Structure formats: C-alpha cells, structure tokens
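Per-record layout

source: Artemisia annua
name: Caleosin-related, EF-hand domain pair
length: 199
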Amino acid sequence: MAAQSGIEAIDNDQNVMRLHAAFFDRNNDGVVYPWETYQGMRAIGGGFLLSIASALFINIGFSRLTRPGKWFPNLLFPLELENITLAKHGSDSDTYDTSGRFVSSKFEEIFSKYARTNPDYLTKDELNEFIKGNHEPKDNFGRIAGFVEWNTLYILGKDKDGLLQKETIRGVFDGSLFVKLEEKNNLSKKKHIANTESS
C-alpha cells in the first residue's frame, strides 16, 4: 500500500486501523483484553474512571464483532486484532475503509467541512458539529461510539488552547499519537518523581 498523507499500511494484514488498535495489545499476542485497554488508556494519560469506562465500552461493545463464527460470547471480551476491521462502526468519518486503510480524502474532508476557524485544527464546537454531521439514521450504537471516541480524543489530545490539531487527529488513526502521549506521560512521571526526591 502506498503512503497517503504520511500514513501507510505496513502490509495487507497490518493496516492503519490495526496499528491504531495494536497499541493497546500490551503483550503483543494479537488479542486486546479489557485490562490491556485499561493499561493503554492509563499509559496515554487517561484517568482511572475514563480508562475503566473506555475498557468496558470498547471491549464489551466490539469484542463480538472481532470474533466472527464464534457463537458463544467470551466473557473476557477480547478484541482479536486480525479481525479488527470488522469492528468498524457506522456514523464515523470513513477515514478507515472497510479494509482498515487510511482514506486521505475522507481525512481532509473533516477539515474542509468543519474547520471553519482554521484549516489546521478543530475547536470544541467544530468537533461537536463534525460528530453530529456523521450521524446515520437508526444507528444508535455508531452514534454513541463516535461520540465517545471523539470526546475521549478531545480530552486526551487537545492542546493548551483547547484545540484539536490536525496532526493530533492524524496520529490517532495510525496509533502514533498513542506512542507520543505515552512517552510524554512517562516523562512527566519521571520529572514528578525527580522533583519529589529532591524536595
């Protein structure tokens, strides 16, 4: 797959949607359990309640979709990364296609349609308009999923002025934002420990 706007799928198995989800596979076994989602959320700066809620919502909401042909639900609610594209829900931006590839034109459309203040970021109001603009009729699950996903991104990814930068949003699609947030969070913890020890 050729590069599109700085994001490229590694191969047919590991597309950008899989890269996005793979960050939360903390032990790299191809399966994401709720405790791994929780650990990943904490690693990127999510608070206790946000991380618990995210783990429950994501794993309970999407586990069954990533386990086709398995009739009985697994009460550990695993997400199988090899089937993660089956968890693509409605009422979204279509920035991932059905194969999990990044669709540059759909990504750019977010900003051409909704970034009225500046083409390089979304304000909170513009983000809310974007979320509402993605709503599909009779798709309650997709609406809720979109609302939760985008507001979680806003909480964790907004800058000091309360803006969601274009590159931040781009980074969430391939998971690179998660790596940056984890590094930033680890650095902040180290500084806090160093300051505490020197006091």
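summary: The beta strands are 31-32, 79-80, 121-122, 164-165. Residues 1-14 have pLDDT under 50 and may be disordered.
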